Prior knowledge:
This protein is of the alpha+beta class. The protein is 24% helix and 32% strand.
Amino acid sequence: MLHLTPTPVTLWIGIIALLLIGALSFLTWRRSPHPRRTAVLEILRMIAAIVVVILLWQPEWRTIINPDTKPRIAILWDDSKSMTTIDAQLPPALSEKSEIVSRAEWVKKALASDLWKPLEAGGANEVTSQPFATPSAENPALSGSDLEAPLSEILEKQNNLRAIVLLSDGDSNIGKPPVAAAQKMRLRGVPLFPIPVGAQTRLPDLDILSASAPSYGIVGENVQIPFTIRSSLDRQARTIVRLRDQNGREHTKDIILPPNSETYDSILWRIEKEGTSTLELSIPVADGELIATNNSRKFTIAGRPEKIRVLVIESQPRWEFRFLRNALSRDPGVELSCLLFHPALGIGGGKDYIKAFPEKLEELAKYDVIFIGDVGVNQDQLTKNQCTLIRGLVENQASGVIFMPGSLGNQFSLLDTDLSDLMPVVLDDAHRNGFGEALSSPLTLTTEGRSSLLTMLGSNEQENPEIWRRLPGFYWHAPVIKAKGGTEVLAVHGNRRGKFGPIPLLVTKPAGNGKVLFMGIDSAWRWRRGVEDLYHYRFWGQVARWMSYQRNMAAGQRVRLFFTPEHPEPGSTVTINANAFDPNGAPLEKGGVAIDLTAPDGRTQRIELRKNESAWGAFSGRFKVDLPGAWKIRATASGAEDKPLVTTLIAQGVEIEKTGQPSHPEVLDEMARVSRGRTIQPAQLADLVREITALPEPRPLETRIPLWSHWATLAALITLLGLFWTGRKLNGMF
Length: 734
């Protein structure tokens, strides 16, 4: 049935327009020498005018469907994992005893009760029930609660709904906002009566939210494993974090968890052998804790006998250089090269020394870490072009660079090169030679430095600050004004402050794909006093491995890969960075890199990585992780199809639907208000029957098609006007 909704103004405008157009058409027909043809044209004109006027009156085609069944009351009940939480109290209407049961058990008793019989008495209504949000059998961890979809679906399928009853905890973590379905119900005149199930406070629980282990570690070295624990206990809890491998070897750490808060901490693990190991991080069940299933997390980590290639560049054989060279040359995991620009004797020679700076990209690209001592852009030292090469190596091939200034102040000349942006601190140009002191000063760790793997000189986090307090101090420090933005300060001057606060002397920052470290003292070699090589060797070994970690994440003969994040969660996007090389070891200039991905469920896809504009053979691409588990990555460079790099990316399984969380009655309240229903509390179940019984009969289902905005109406009008215009042209020709 056609229905018009004109306003008084548009009604009279349309009537007057039709009268004027009708009069004009009549006069045109009377005066025309071809009355028959003109009559047809004027009829087309009049039809077009009528269509336009009707569109002005906003026509709608309405169809009314009268139901042929009894009024229906639909009961939707939540079957998600969160409903297994044990925090629902049974009301007297469902149990004689006031006991605490799971939310699912509460719903089960409610559905099995006689509560719904009065609604079906005398055949007045037809009551149906169905679950929603049932966990998937294939991927239960990715299953969640969607409150909008089941409500919208039942509105589409049923044409004689009287009301909908929703039994849920209000947890909606996937899909559209639930209020969208409530708005549809309001338009249909179907009220929603939600019954919130579950407590509004979190159950007493300790939950390991995350454990972020690196992809690999060096055999014989420590790796740092950060973790996050959430406590919903109403008291402070002292617990033990236990890290254990499949062979039973374990490491523990005592921590204190504040009440109702999240705690961020880390634990060290020493890699003892090559290959992949499965580790489990766990905490014991605390007194009063009701959920024990989330007190542990498992992950994998690989052990590698890594060979790190290091280049040390220095201008004079100061004590810091000599002991650094000894420490790195005696490290079995380091392959050392030294370039010494001796001011009096010329280029240094001997074991581990090279005669000149690597000029070819393939020669420089082999270095994972570069130490730049008291060196600058001077005669017989570095050139600006070489500084540009070092920056390109760091930003494009994920190498690391360490600035170690000295009392000669040569590094100030680097501020006029491309290395200036890599410097993580602002230097004082008025004191180029730094500051010497008569008494030794200590380095003081910052909050970040106390937990950083770079500064971890002890076997655990508790003894580390005490070790740093006992270390011999320094007598000279670089003229640092402040740290730049985006950096991380690990240690500061223990005795002096600048106008911006404590003077930062150990600072790190990311640079492109690589890392930068600034060491503002020249007395680390003094740390050997009384303990020989213990802390000095450990510090520089950790620095070299930390700087080269990302670069060596996955390395093959012709391709090297590193990805961010290392352990993605389902739903996150992973960035893959690749460096490709030609058969001679030079960065690949022509060709590309293809990535073949195999998902945990066997799906495969190919990604062609995009090359950047540099000459470093750097490529990048992205893909989305939608499943937890092992993603197999096969990387192939052009011309090296027989030498692919095969590695695995582990996606951590994160459960969308969790137990022990508080219910969300506020979500259900909003849905009830929008749909013009009412929230029924568990203790008011008797009111539910009275509320529904008092509802009027469902109104017939009405569908509306707005013709004034329909594409077919516009097409018909254009066709009609086209015929009229064509007819007028033809009418004037003969």
